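Tip: read the tokens left to right.
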């Protein structure tokens, strides 16, 4: 499972939206494609958002594979603050520095955004469906930082404080093993776990 490459929104520091990859993001995806070239993927999935789909396509460039896109693999929806610069509400994130993981799962900046729990719920359901269909096979999934961080927390890799925003770098990945219901983290790359730091 791979986080998309550097996007226009990442550069502009806006949340959500549907921007594509910038040149550096394309280079990151192609570089990861070289790293994963010997893996015989049975199928490739991505979020339907442009930055994720482009990343998946570049990783598998030159292979006889198609990318299957799914809305359920999308990033957390930010509702009415979607496409806004994070400087406009960064002060609201300060409220997170002392919250427990239980509180973080339910926390929202605005009422019409998805909580981490809501976003993770639909993401994890999609992940289980895909895994059940491809038991015993290797698949590639390209998604987004927030839902992937939530997966790491859910699987006990670390807390939200240990995995703050942007702790999963662009084209960072999580290697998982699954029986269709349960998931085990086998490896990570580009995940910066930070002990004792606040969000």
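Filled-in amino acids:
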């Amino acid at each position: 499972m791979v986080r998309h490459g550097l996007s226009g929104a990442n550069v502009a520091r806006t949340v959500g939206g549907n921007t594509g990859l910038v040149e550096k993001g394309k280079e990151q995806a192609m570089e990861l494609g070289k790293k994963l070239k010997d893996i015989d993927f049975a199928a490739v999935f991505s979020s339907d958002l442009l930055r994720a789909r482009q990343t998946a396509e570049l990783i598998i460039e030159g292979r006889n594979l198609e990318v299957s896109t799914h809305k359920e693999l999308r990033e957390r929806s930010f509702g009415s603050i979607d496409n806004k610069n994070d400087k406009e509400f960064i002060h609201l994130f300060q409220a997170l520095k002392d919250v427990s993981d239980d509180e973080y799962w339910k926390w929202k900046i605005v009422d019409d955004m998805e909580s981490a729990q809501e976003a993770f719920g639909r993401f994890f359901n999609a992940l289980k469906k895909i895994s059940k269909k491809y038991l015993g096979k290797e698949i590639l999934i390209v998604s987004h930082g927030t839902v992937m961080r939530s997966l790491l927390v859910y699987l006990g890799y670390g807390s939200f404080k240990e995995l703050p925003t942007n702790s999963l770098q662009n084209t960072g990945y999580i290697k998982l093993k699954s029986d269709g219901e349960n998931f085990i983290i086998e490896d990570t790359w580009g995940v910066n776990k930070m002990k004792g730091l606040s969000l």
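The radius of gyration is 16 Å. The longest helix spans residues 116-133.
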